[in-house]
Amino acid sequence: MTYCCALRLEQGLVLISDTRTNAGVDHISVFRKLHTFGVDGERFIALQTSGNLATTQAVIGHLQNALTLRQEPNLNTVNTMFEVAELIGKTLRKVLADITSDLHEQMNYSCSILVAGQIQGDKMQLYNVYPQGNFICATTDTPYFQIGESKYGKPILDRALYYKMPLDDALRCALISFDSTLRSNVSVGLPLDALVYHKDSFKIPTGKRISENDLYFTQISKQWSETLRRGLQELPKPTADYDL
Amino acid sequence: MTYCCALRLEQGLVLISDTRTNAGVDHISVFRKLHTFGVDGERFIALQTSGNLATTQAVIGHLQNALTLRQEPNLNTVNTMFEVAELIGKTLRKVLADITSDLHEQMNYSCSILVAGQIQGDKMQLYNVYPQGNFICATTDTPYFQIGESKYGKPILDRALYYKMPLDDALRCALISFDSTLRSNVSVGLPLDALVYHKDSFKIPTGKRISENDLYFTQISKQWSETLRRGLQELPKPTADYDL
């Protein structure tokens, strides 16, 4: 499986993806699921992928190929993030149609894609492209999307995240969301790819790979366990009607 | 949907179930999913159910009917918790076979059942009865089972729970697991039914119903949100390589 999480906040974007893929429990590999595109100073586009790896690689491959061969439309010539999401949705539909015209059968090869970024002259956006190629857009009410194994890491986002949250707080919140998922589900695994984009910077972030022995991630994971254990103990004792 | 959680710990059992059922989003009802049986001073047996409501009610109905008509075997005459789990598995198989002999088709009407309790002369046990009627038993390594919408509430159990945890700490841990689930998934809803059984007491607990306006649950839910928010802020600031 996969876990990808993307936050679109007042100050920028926080994107984190895991890298574990599996075809059965005995065929586990590491594949990057966070992909960046763009032109420094002009546009930044990131894709996070979950689902069938051949399909997501084909979508990324077609997008990259169009850039290499300067075929129109491509990620460097579309005008807005909406057009980026449309291009990705169309590319996904084409990849699936190449396998079969049966829409029901297509779902066996499908994927979900988070698309985030900003193009000069347009707002910073975050889209969730569904397996059918249509998509929804993040808002101030719902400032984050998740794809893949999303449930374990949802409670911390639902409790703590808000649109105006500073980027460093939001990053820690997202990292804890990943840590919770990693501990509860072996199909999501290290290393993680994380990046922070500052709104209106139009700078393509290098991003960071978080591996097994990453000191900062290990430290916050450990401290978070202690926070939870201490927090539980500090809760008031159950009332008498619990028969303790 | 449903969320039921059962902990089998050194000192006793902690069982919590929600009560929300839904047949479509416009048909939401309250049904008890935590059922107790037994004879005070001799045996305590609890069932927690998820899945098809007609099936779970039929299983409970058959078990209760056998008690009323003193048909053998019944929950008050079997000798061990293993035999309890076997009786429940068989009852479930019978209920499903009454609908159809097609095992694949049966899965459309199926359910999961957690069975916990203790009978004089036997160990306290916790079983997870699968939709097929077979079952597994909790151990000191894996002291808890969940059925239904289990993922949201799993991280806190995975981080904090251990076999020798005192019952009052474990109860708070399970309540927070429910609170996390309630906040992230509308298919799990209040009121909750909770009970604590003390090992070797052979006393059937009254249990407690936790409703919308329960002061203690509201208080720990609010305090937990603060714990998480403060805990996130107290994590060390992200390192420079995150480009913040």
From TrEMBL, chains A, B:
GO terms for cellular component: proteasome core complex. GO terms for biological process: proteolysis involved in protein catabolic process. It comes from the Bacteria. It holds the Pfam family Proteasome. This is Peptidase. It comes from Acinetobacter courvalinii.
